Structures are given as C-alpha cells and as structure tokens.
Amino acid sequence: MDPRAATAVLDVLGYVVVLNLFVEYLPTVLTETFTLSLLTALLLKAILELVVAVKNGVKARYRKALTRTGKVVAAVGLWLVLVASKFVVLEAVDLVFGDRVSLGGFVPVTLLIVALMVTRAAARRLLSGTRPYAPLG
C-alpha cells in the first residue's frame, strides 16, 4: 500500500475516534449515526489537508520575508488562516450535513481541530517510527 494512502486511512480512522469521543463527552457536538460520523471525518480530513497546505504556504512566505512589514503581514495571514479555518469547517459541515451533524460552535470546533491535528501528528509519528513486520524481541 502506498504510504500516503496508509497515512490517510489512519488519519480518517483517528478522526472518527476523536469525533465520536467529542460526541460522547461534549453535548454540543452531535452526529445522528456512525455513518455520518465517518462521513464527517472524511470531510474534516479533506478540509484540514487544505488548511495545512495553505498554512504551510503562509509559513513559507513568513520565512522568506526580508522586512519586518513582510513578516508582520505573513504572521497576520497565518492568524487569519487559523481562525478562518474553524468557520470554514463549521460552514462546510452545516452545508453538507445540515442538522444531522453539529460541531457545536467556535470553541468546540477549535478543540476538536486541535485534537484532530494531534491525532494526525501521532499517526504520522507512529507510521514513521515503526517497521512493518519487524521481528519481536
């Protein structure tokens, strides 16, 4: 299996677990069915990949900026990407799923995205730090 595909599958499975934990413990985060939570995890994966790509582009622009003004503009751009992404997630979920899925509001979705990004990083670390079929012992 292609390592990128394996990483994507692991991400989505991790996102499903995290999303369902949020559904269980935060009353404002709701999905009607497991199927909807799986589809929501797929949507979140797609959106967060786009957000990470945009964020990395802005970070590259920050590193390349030669003036203080350039760095400030890039830093403000990064802040805007990070804040706007939460609203993009909320609107996309509402547009696709309507009342059948609710991620709460800005604070719950921010906590959810942080948890998803930690899960994403852990999945990558897990995949890069292990060898398949390594002998035991």
Report the total helices.
Answer: 4
Backbone CA Rg? 17 Å
Distance between the termini: 26 Å
Could you tell me the mean pLDDT? 89
Order of helices and strands: HEHHEH
Q: How many strand segments?
A: 2
In percent terms, what proportion of residues is strand? Answer: under 5%
Biggest sheet character: 2 strands, antiparallel
Spatial shape: globular
Which class of secondary structure composition applies to the elements?
A: mainly alpha
Please state how the strands of the largest beta sheet are arranged side by side.
1-2
Low-pLDDT regions: 133-137
Percent helix: over 70%
Question: Secondary structure elements and their pairing?
Answer:
Layout: H1 3-25, E1 29-31, H2 34-64, H3 68-97, E2 101-103, H4 106-129
Antiparallel strand pairs: 1-2
Helix pairs in contact: 1-2, 1-4, 2-3, 3-4
In words, what does this structure look like?
This protein is mostly helical. Helices cover 79% and strands 4% of the residues. It has a two-stranded antiparallel sheet. Helix 1 packs antiparallel against helix 4, helix 2 packs antiparallel against helix 3 and helix 3 packs across helix 4. The longest helix is centred in the middle third of the chain and has 31 residues. The chain starts with a helix and ends in an 8-residue tail after the last helix. 19% of the residues are buried. The C terminus is likely disordered.
Brief overview:
It contains 4 helices and 2 strands. With 137 residues, the protein is mainly α. The longest helix has 31 residues, at 34-64.
